[in-house]
Amino acid sequence: MTDTTAARNLAPLREGYKYGFVSDIESESAPPGLNEDTVRFIAAKKGEPQWLLDWRLEAFRKWQTMESPHWAKLRIAPIDYQAATYYSAPKRQNAPKSLDEVDPELLKTYEKLGIPLNERAALAGVAVDAVFDSVSVATTFKRTLAELGIVFCSFGEAVREHPELVRKYLGTVVPQGDNFYAALNSAVFSDGSFAYIPSGVRCPMELSTYFRINAAKSGQFERTLIVADKGAYVSYLEGCTAPQRDENQLHAAVVELIALEGAEIKYSTVQNWYPGDAEGKGGIYNFVTKRGACRGARAKISWTQVETGSAITWKYPSCILEGDDSVGEFYSVAITNNFQQADTGTKMLHLGRNTRSTIISKGISAGRGQNTYRGLVRVQPKAENARNYTQCDSLLIGDKCGAHTVPYIEARNPTARIEHEATTSKISDDQMFYCQQRGLSKEDALSLIVNGFCKEVLKELPMEFAVEAQKLLAVSLEGSVG
Amino acid sequence: MLEIGNLHARIADGREILKGVDLAVKAGEVHAIMGPNGSGKSTLAGVLSGKPGYEVTEGQVLYEGRDLLAMPADERARAGVFLAFQYPVEIPGVNNMYFLRAALNAVRKQRGESEMDAGQFLKAVRAKLKLLEIGEDLLQRGVNVGFSGGEKKRNEIFQMAMLDPKLAILDETDSGLDIDALQMVSRGINALRGPDRAIVMITHYQRLLNYVVPDRVHVLSAGRIVKSGDAALARELEETGYGAYGDAA
User: What is the architecture of the domain spanning B2-245?
Assistant: First the structure.
């Protein structure tokens, strides 16, 4: 990209061009609004090759013909897609070679968020590809990983350094026109993460990315692509926090996972975006498409999520079990408090023989929160001896919240074995009193009971994440018991 | 240690259940409170332990000279008031051992003692388990989940042994126990008698008192203590029944 192209692309839009962000970092944003020029602006800004621009434009054209889905049990205020800003990035930094070159303001923000970018990261064994607003500014541990042939970098860097890999896999699990939000993401995605684990390599550390939404009115459109080649293993952690903001922010991410023969991908999320205030004002809209494909025999993909934040969550991490004997897992805790709404669940598509899937979903509703589990288990005709076990438990706190379970089961092969169990329970005054009579404070009692309820999911999280998640559960439910 | 004076309490529907209870319990003593169904035994246990749903309308309760009724339930517990529940509550998914350690550390913190780590805790636990002949597997199960009636009651006494309270209130701990379990629980309670601890046993039947011999026995009827005596009073009640003391209000 040259400055003249950028200028040309910007020309018709210059009027709305603004600086001035909450953080003191000088950002550069696309003007609000969405049309082909916006897409071109983003691609130009990022210096992307023609094939990717074409891919984005194709997605944009599909998106224009689509409507936002309305089947979820969610009340969503109409979103004005022309009012949003689709690109905002910390000012181009001439590629910082070390942390010393990174804007100290940015580092301070990271520190507040507790992100171990420096030496602490080494001690914790975590490599961080930190995403601030939309552009990755620092990546650590790349050398260690590089020695093993592991690629872990920002999406933008992957496009520049490993275009053949990106081109081979991008959009193969979540096609551009998959759904309204995925199409939107495909058109305007800003950055994200890319990981490739070569054949037979076991990634020695948890790969971790922290997302944070910072710029006002800038929807975030992350794109994550993880490929585990034959026999490879990787555990990936995704955690999010966002500062308080009195305005709805749209987040429409796409995550694609590809596990080849005998490979395993474990993807863990702790999502803690601003949920809106106690009156239901503000908060993040989290409309995410996450899907993994087990492309070879004995491949395994495991999703674990702890969803405590966002005003609205629309999210169904899914597995396409193509390879024989492949395994899909979904472990989920979703909390809705105050006016939060969540419609979340999974899809397990059994295509190969002897494919197995497990779904453990724990929904917790407090305040006026509405929590829906929506899941699909589909066994295709060729999937001999497919098995699924689903367990959906709902916990209610108070009497103004709601829990809903919407399981879809489609078995097209008579050998399929599908089990579904569901329970709904309420935290009783007796349980609270019992704990308090043993000396636990009201808050500790609630946290203990809730963590007990979520145990089967929390134990799937890597240790350090599990601790964070437990604290989050308690924080999310603060004040929900009178 | 415990001084109850003219205690009146009512339940949510407005009915007055306790109508002027007077009782004084000293450290080192074991008191039994007996009475027919509906006499207010469980209400008394509830009011003393801070269970929600009761309103004290008159009177006072002093615990070690402090106004007990002004303290929230968890604060009372940390100050050394323990209630062995008539119906121990199930908490699915919460490991019994984890629960107990959290409780113990909350109490220890209050006493200005350091928190116990897993190793120290396990050592302390093993010593007490023997006392009540409880298998270690019980610790790994969810709190009271799938416990038999006897296991639940033994678990209550085990918790009491671990938490080392100053004032223990045992609410119908003998109910639903067969003779073996009753003896086992009784052994546990006896082992916990001591000069610094007061125990208040609430029971409908005399049989527990054969194994845990009380210093004082009180008859609660229609919300008041109508007679007090020594262990002989319990035996007398067993023969004559509660008829002489009037039916519940």
Answer: 3-Layer(aba) Sandwich (3.40)
Q: Are A235 and A268 in contact (CB under 8 A)?
A: yes
User: Minimal Cα–Cα distance from B77 to chain A, Å?
Assistant: 5
A245 pLDDT higher than 90: no
Rounded to an integer, what distance in angstroms lies between the CA atom of residue A384 and that of residue A353?
5
Between CA A239 and CA A267 the distance in angstroms is 11
- The answer to whether A159 and A42 are in contact (CB under 8 A) is no
Among residues A349, A347, A397, which one has the least CA distance to residue A371? A397
Residues A425-439 have pLDDT tens digits of 888 889 999 999 999
Backbone torsions φ then ψ of B170, nearest 5 degrees: -105, 110
- Count other C-beta atoms under 10 Å from residue A455's C-beta: 18
The CA–CA distances, whole Å, from A282 to A70, A119, A213, A274 equal 21, 36, 14, 8
Q: Say whether pLDDT at A97 is over 60.
A: no
β-bridge partners, A209: A238
Say if A41 falls within a structural domain. Answer: no
Contacts of B83 in chain A (CB under 8 A): 437
For the stretch A308-322, pLDDT in tens is 888 889 999 999 999
Contacts B95 to A, Cβ<8 Å? 452
Domain assignment present for residue A35? The answer is no
Which residue would you say has higher pLDDT here, A472 or B31?
B31
3-state secondary structure of A262: coil
Question: Rounded distance, CA A108 to CA A106, Å?
Answer: 5
Could you give the ipTM of this predicted complex?
Answer: 0.95
* Residue that the structure tokens 């005003």 belong to: A311
Q: Is A452 in contact with B92 (Cβ distance < 8 A)?
A: yes
Q: Is residue A150 part of a domain?
A: yes
Residues of chain B with a CB closer than 8 angstroms to some CB in chain A: 49-53, 72-74, 76-78, 82-83, 85, 88-95, 99-100, 102-103, 106-107, 110, 142-143, 159, 163
- Tens digit of each residue's pLDDT (9 = 90 or more) over A375-394: 999 999 999 999 999 999 99
**Interface probe with A: pick from B74, B82, B108, most Cβ of A within 10 Å:** B74
For residues A408 and A394, give the distance between their C-alpha atoms in angstroms, rounded to a whole number.
17
State which residue of chain A sits closest to B51, comparing Cα positions.
A433
Coil, strand, or helix at residue B1? coil
* Type of residue found at A183: A
Domain extent at residue A396: 129-476
Distance from the Cα of A262 to chain B's closest Cα (Å) equals 33
Query: How many interchain CB pairs under 8 A, A with B?
Result: 80
| Total domains in the fold of chain A | 1
B52 closest CB neighbour out of A433, A448, A452 = A433
For B152-176, write each residue's pLDDT tens digit. Answer: 999 999 999 999 999 999 999 988 8
Average pLDDT, chain A: 80
Dig out the tokens for A135 from the structure: 């552009």
Contact criterion met (CB < 8 Å) for A438 and B110: no
A399 within a domain of the structure (yes/no):
yes
Provide the angle, in degrees to the nearest 10, between the axes of the packed helices B149-163 and B96-110. Answer: 30
Task: Give the model's pLDDT for residue A191.
Answer: 82
| Distance from C-alpha of A482 to C-alpha of B224, rounded to nearest angstrom | 33
d(Cα B173, Cα A1) in Å, to the nearest integer? 80
pLDDT tens track for A173-184: 999 999 999 999
